[in-house]
Design goal:
Number of helices: 13
CATH superfamily of the largest domain: Type I PLP-dependent aspartate aminotransferase-like (Major domain)
Number of domains: 2
Order of helices and strands: HEHHHEHEHEEHEHEEEEHHEEHEEEHH
Protein name: glycine dehydrogenase (aminomethyl-transferring)
Largest sheet: 7 strands, mixed
GO biological process, one term: glycine decarboxylation via glycine cleavage system
CATH topology of the largest domain: Aspartate Aminotransferase, domain 2
Distance between the termini: 55 Å
Structural class: alpha/beta
InterPro entries: GDC-P_N, GDC_P, PyrdxlP-dep_Trfase, PyrdxlP-dep_Trfase_major, PyrdxlP-dep_Trfase_small
CATH class of the largest domain: Alpha Beta
Number of strands: 15
GO molecular function, one term: glycine dehydrogenase (decarboxylating) activity
Organism: Vreelandella sulfidaeris
Helix content: 25-40%
Radius of gyration: 22 Å
CATH architecture of the largest domain: 3-Layer(aba) Sandwich
Length: 411
């Protein structure tokens, strides 16, 4: 019976059509290093372990989470990061609550959300705002400082792929006593100027594309980073360095008096868990590749997106933005025809309600994939060559990242 059941399940599984996803919106293809998959993801010593309330028997896992926190701090340019939250959307909702707790200068009860954040993030923030009793205002990010709000959330890069210089916007918000949260893409920060330098008070996002499979939308470990002055209000767990009874350096969960298992209803947040396994995987991914390896991965993704952009422009396609990291948004196109060709090639793209189409590339994308995308987006008679386009991009030094947004600091 067991063999028959397994065969039946295998038959059902074979009916699935495996499609290539370019949807993006916070979910991307990744390559998990085999050593991490075998020794961490598939190791019960890592995936069955509970919260490390007994640090004396959990030093290895605590060190992994401390490494994750350091990776987040380095890439975001912030002073403090927690050991992960549930996902990007709930992290953004937690950021809204932190803005209200931490902003002592504003009497407003309204929170601003840019209209180009990821849709799932907007949905969760809306729900949380309703039950907190906050008024939610949505609109173009450029209008942020025009509103009387206690905090604001913007996406960097935006949901449609635009890479904008946030420094003037965040500076204007600060002058009006508005706390700002930047939701960002971890891989993009390898090449983009870090939000901490731009003036963000809080930085959140998803660490999924650091080696964690898409998994039908989750689970994925969110990250949450802020300044040291907000350390007593930050949600989630923080791993800190301390001394044991013998004076040796040791790791433990720090500042636990903020947390629900101690403070109960007076806790800074009702988030009483974390994606520790996946946070460790993301941290190990960064360690495995190192800074130079991450630059190669991010640079390759951006280069493929840039040559895709150059080819589309040569074919007469209008891009919604002049800047990008990994996502291109096509406007004024026949989305119906593109969708039909995409289905023929088993490709999933992102289709906006206004008829625009976006494509998000990732570390699994190849030059052959880009050639197939030209066929899907333009038809078979486009006459474009990926190799020729690549030579043009390199020779002309073309980049989709504005000079003001290019990262200058090391990590």
């Amino acid at each position: 019976m067991r063999a028959e059941a397994l065969e039946y399940l295998a038959q059902l599984a074979r009916q699935n059509r495996i499609a290539k996803s370019y949807i993006g919106q916070g979910y991307y293809g990744t390559h998990m290093p085999a050593v991490i998959q075998r020794n961490v993801l598939e190791n019960p010593g890592w995936y069955t372990a509970y919260t490390p309330y007994q640090p004396e028997i959990s030093q290895g896992r605590l060190e992994g989470l401390l490494n994750f926190q350091q990776v987040i701090m380095d890439l975001t340019g912030m002073e403090l990061a927690n050991a992960s939250l549930l996902d990007e959307a709930t992290a953004a909702a937690e950021a809204m609550a932190l803005c209200k707790r931490g902003n002592k200068k504003s009497k407003s009860n309204a929170f601003f959300v840019a209209d180009d954040v990821f849709p799932q993030t907007l949905d969760v923030v809306k729900t949380r705002a309703e039950f907190f009793g906050f008024d939610l205002i949505t609109g173009p990010a450029e209008e942020l400082a025009n509103h009387d709000v206690f905090g604001a959330l913007v996406q960097y890069p935006s949901a449609s792929g635009e890479v904008r210089d946030l420094a003037p916007l965040l500076s204007a918000a600060s002058e009006r006593n508005i706390m700002t949260c930047v939701a960002t893409d971890l891989l993009s920060l390898v090449l983009l100027k870090e939000p901490g330098t731009l003036g963000a008070d809080i930085v959140v996002g998803n660490s999924q594309r650091f080696g964690v499979p898409m998994g039908f939308g989750g689970p994925h470990a969110a990250f949450f980073a802020t300044s040291d002055k907000l350390k007593r209000s930050i949600p989630g767990r923080i791993i800190g360095v301390s001394k044991d009874s013998r004076g040796n350096t040791a790791l433990r969960m720090a500042m636990q008096t903020r947390e629900q298992h101690i403070r109960r209803e007076k806790a800074t947040s009702n988030i009483c868990t974390a994606q520790a396994l996946l946070a460790n995987i993301a941290g190990f991914y960064a360690t495995y590749h190192g800074a130079e390896g991450l630059r190669k991965i991010a640079g390759r993704v951006h280069r493929l997106a840039t040559l895709l952009a150059q080819g589309l422009k040569q074919a007469g396609v209008t891009l919604a933005h002049d800047s990008w990291f990994d996502t291109l948004c096509l406007t004024g196109v026949d989305a119906g025809k593109i969708h039909g060709r995409a289905m023929t090639h088993d490709i999933n793209l992102h289709y906006f309600a206004n008829g625009d189409v976006s494509i998000s590339l990732d570390e699994t994308t190849t030059a052959h994939d880009v050639a197939t995308l030209f066929d899907v987006l333009l038809g078979n008679e486009h006459g474009l060559s990926v190799a020729v386009l690549d030579e043009q991009v390199v020779a002309d030094g073309v980049s989709g990242i504005p000079a003001a947004c290019q990262r200058e600091s090391d990590f």
